[in-house]
Design brief:
This protein has 106 residues and is mainly alpha-helical. The chain contains 5 helices and no strands. It has 2 domains: 38 residues; 49 residues.
Amino acid sequence: MKKCLTFNNHQTLQLQLKCMRLEMKQQENGMISDTKNYVKSIPKNIMLGNKNKTLNPKAVANPIGRILAKGINATLLNKQGFLTKIIAGFFIKKVSKKLENKLLKT
């Protein structure tokens, strides 16, 4: 928004300043209305949290384990049986807890 302007007299300077102030005010009002529209479009349960549902803390406690378990089950163990996938998932989650603790300590 950097403009090189030359002014011949004080009136043109004042007129240009007035125009610039009006543009800035319009941009400010536009930003405020855009922000209000954006906030209204966000679902209320994200902003206020899930008050009706209680989250299981164990389900959220180990995100690395969940990601590793899903990834390995989908790639390496995709043709294995149900029990093999469950056992591998538990093992991976235990290993990932140790990994997560090491990562958080550093």
